[in-house]
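Bump. Still looking for Phenylalanine--tRNA ligase alpha subunit structure tokens.
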Amino acid sequence: MEEKLKRLHEEAHKSLAEARTMDELNEIRVRILGKKGELTQILRGMGGLSSEERPRIGQVANEVRDAIEGELAVRTAGLKELLKEQKLREEGIDITLPGTPVLRGRKHPLTIVREEIQDIFLGLGFSIAEGPEVETDYYNFEALNLPKDHPARDMQDTFFISPETLLRTHTSPVQVRTMEKTAPELPVKIIVPGKVYRRDDDATHSPMFNQVEGLAVDRRITFSDLKGTLDLFARLMFGMKTRTRFRPSFFPFTEPSAEVDISCVICGGDGCRVCSHTGWLEILGSGMVHPRVLEVSGYNSEEVTGFAFGMGVERITMLKYGIDDMRLLFDNDLRFLQQF
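Sorry for the wait, here they are.
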């Protein structure tokens, strides 16, 4: 029996050395050390041994069991490490390869330009005011000297929700709302950025677009203050060499009124296709606040004056970056947006 135990140990040692997988090691463990294993079968024959041989054979059997279990543990640990190294080699990452780029968001060009406009006027002492996009007919038209059936309303054909409620066509209603709240206190210096809505849809117009309007009300404000403010804005926005031109125009809520042009951002005023060879590009409308608008808002038009202006953020953005189709600003095309 002692010889059987020694042979079993030798066979187990050889089998463990040749095993290459965890499954093979498990098979060896079950075949030798399991409940029906070879070692168990040998030990069952100890009942036929004499009382003198039984302790000695039992000790040898325990030594063989311990030796096999020890070798099995060592071989198992070694094989696990070997398999781990093999897996790492097969699944290893080549750190010399360039990494996968992470797509990062960035500001939309409209946001960039709107914030730049805001920063310029905040630096000139203006504050930012906001108001509702769903507006009443009174604030959107009547309080701005546009009574019902006035032909000038046709310029701002819009989306009506009810006969007296509509999506605002400009941010000017916020000017009236602000003056109502502050009258008779002075001065009033605000800009009003926000979305507005009109029934337009082509390469240069959108049914929804962004405006920034401005208002300054105080004693002794003149048209020269308006010209100086907008001339400085144009130079800060488009470059210090930019020139401005004021052309007479008509807006019901200002008198006198003027369209403001800048020297062409492409040709510098020499004349090109972008400016239709005139050397000028229109950027905004402006004027002195109409006395009736001041009176409706709670100010005495004999004592105070003011100026107002309004610009489309999309138009300023298109001129600043040379964009020829407004719809590009709303297409969510990453190829376009990644340029800014």
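The mean pLDDT is 87.

Edit: fixed formatting.
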